[in-house]
Amino acid sequence: MNKKRVQQVFNALNKMSKQPLQKKKFTFSYKSDLLEYKSYLSNFSSEQYKLLDGLFDELAVQDSIQSLFAGSIVNQTENRSALHHRYRAPDPIPEFNFRKICGPLLQKIKKEKYQNIITFGIGGSYEGPKLLQEFLFNPGSNINYSFVSGPDKDEFNSIVKPLLAQKNLYIFASKSLSTDETLSCLKWLGKNRTAKNAIAITANSKSARALGFPEESIISFSESVGGRYSIWSPISLTASIENNFIGFLQGGGLADKLLLGNSLDAKKYQKLIKTLAFSDIWFSNFGNKKNRVVLTYNWRLRSFANYIQQLEMESLGKPSNVQSLFHETGQTIFGGFGSTAQHSYFQLLHQGTSQASADIILSPTAQSPLSNAQAQGQASLLSSAHNASDNLLELTNGNTPVNLFILPKLSLKELGFLLATWEHRVFITACMLQINPFDQFGVVAGKKMANVFIKKIPVSK
């Protein structure tokens, strides 16, 4: 790395940030069979893009991408690879072949004709499967799917207790199988759990056996698959019981292929990822936009923002690297179902003093014409000052940069492509900031402190 060149890039960016707001916007669009993107990035121009692209080269980010997919040690603090992407490879090896790993158990589950399938898990073991199940929306299904995070017994009593008399499958999804929340649910379930109606999905098979799960009821996955990246792994077993989960993996694999490719389509896709990462860094470090709202305008994507919140804030919420010239790392992510959000915090976004950028996601389905119109309208309104009437009280700020993502249809393949794209955005951002997106020592510290207090408080049985 040429430190002098890096410093020059930073100085140029810093100088630009002190100039008056630019009227022109960075214009870029991307379109494929699986995703369409439009930029509404006010106060970000091709000049900033080119400078950050030069920094991308100086930091050898392309080499880091190659290292990630080659299985090299990219999680330096824990001396691990990050292998979640191997589940979505075109021809995965047996250890990452979802069909081979989950196929036998899936056949047994289908034969049993369970009334309820209840998943106990927290973090990535909760957000990923829950997002997928809500997205799938199978109105003709005879199975009720529930998800329990476990920290409060009222949650367990509300969701699980009314179902105990029915035919249930209990899934304990936890990478470590040691989180207090999941273990509490195990205790509360008590004798209702048997060797035949419960399975464990974990990277810690030893702990599963110690907790009484028979070998045939344990599905293992690699320790090199982080919780927030585990949506591609057997953690998402429930999404494959009645659906073609392989389509989801294929969508993610296609995004990986484009990130690594050299074709014209690949180059366009790579510019999309760079646009997202570069603009995030610019707005956070030089535009005082520490927050980003993620809004989805399809009901089936209502938990998308929750999933992205964990992916980004756990991956990018790290201390700045002393060797990096950037002092701001991850943005604070919030959001939800866009139509509801318009009646909660859109007032602040349109006319408040808090600075934010926005990601808006929609699919133009026949079921949601109003939502689609709202999404397009908000993208335009947030990104440019507008006064539809002569009333000055209705003047909007118009200084919110917006990324608009459009899914041609709501299928698992499109969702897989979008989520892998978001992971690529996070990884490249981390490389540019020179931080590790795969460890989570802040989370670990929080758990250790909580355990100090847990030991002092009697846990309900």
Structure description:
The N and C termini lie far apart (57 Å). This protein has two domains: 3-79 and 248-442, 3-Layer(aba) Sandwich (Rossmann fold); 93-243, Rossmann fold. Strands 1, 2, 3, 9, 10, 11 and 12 form a seven-stranded mixed β-sheet that branches. It is built from 16 helices and twelve strands. The model has no long low-confidence stretch (mean pLDDT 91). The chain has 461 residues and is α/β, with parallel strands linked by helices. The protein has helices spanning 3-17, 46-58, 61-70, 98-112, 124-136, 153-159, 180-189, 205-210, 245-260, 264-286, 304-316, 338-341, 346-351, 369-383, 412-433, 441-454; strands spanning 25-26, 29-31, 36-42, 116-120, 144-148, 168-173, 198-202, 218-220, 291-296, 332-337, 356-362, 402-406. It is 44% helix and 13% strand.
Q: Tell me, what's the shape?
A: globular
Number of helices: 16
Mean pLDDT value: 91
What is the helix fraction of residues, given as a range? 40-55%
Look at the structure and name the CATH superfamily of the largest domain: Glucose-6-phosphate isomerase like protein, domain 1
- How widely separated are the two ends? 57 Å
CATH architecture of the largest domain: 3-Layer(aba) Sandwich
Residue fraction in strands: 5-15%
Runs in which pLDDT lies below 50 for 5 or more consecutive residues are: none
Q: Using only CA atoms, what is the Rg?
A: 23 Å
Give the CATH topology of the largest domain. Rossmann fold
Number of domains: 2
Please outline the major beta sheet. Answer: 7 strands, mixed
Order of helices and strands: HEEEHHHEHEHEHEHEHHEHEHHEHEHH
Structural class: alpha/beta
CATH class of the largest domain: Alpha Beta
Number of E-state strands: 12
